[in-house]
Amino acid sequence: MDFFSSINVSSSALSAERTRMNLISSNLANASATRTAEGGPYKRKDAVFSATPMESRFNRALDGATAQQVRQVEVSQIVEDQNPPRMQYDPGHPDADPQGYVAMPNVNVVEEMADMIGATRAYEANVTAVQAAKSMAMKTLEIGR
Which H or E element spans position 88? Predict the structure, then answer.
C-alpha cells in the first residue's frame, strides 16, 4: 500500500465516523421528541458501513499480485431503527392516547453514549494512523539527506 492509499483509507474512515457521530447527536437531541414531520415519535437512526475497493494506479499495478485488496470505508446507508416506540404513562401529555400513554422515541441514551465513545475511539485511531503514515513519509525523506 502506498503512502497516499493509507491516507485515503484513514480519511474515508474519518468521514464515516463523523457521519456516525452526527447521527448519534441527532438521536440524543431527539430522545424525547414525540412528534415528527412524518408523524409519530422520532425513530433512532444508525449508519451502516461497508468496505469498498479503492481505485488507484498502485492498486491496479498490484492487481492479482496479492490476495488482499485495499478497501475504504463508506456509509452505504442510514437506517431507521424499526423497534416499536417506548410507551410511557403520562396522561397530562398532549400526545397521550385515551389510556394516558405516550409513544416515546426508541432511543436509549445509555446505548447512544456507548456508541459515541466507540465512534470517538475509532476516530482517534484513524487520526493516529494518518499521523503514523505522515511520520513514516518524513522519515523516508530524511534518508536522502
Answer: strand 86-89
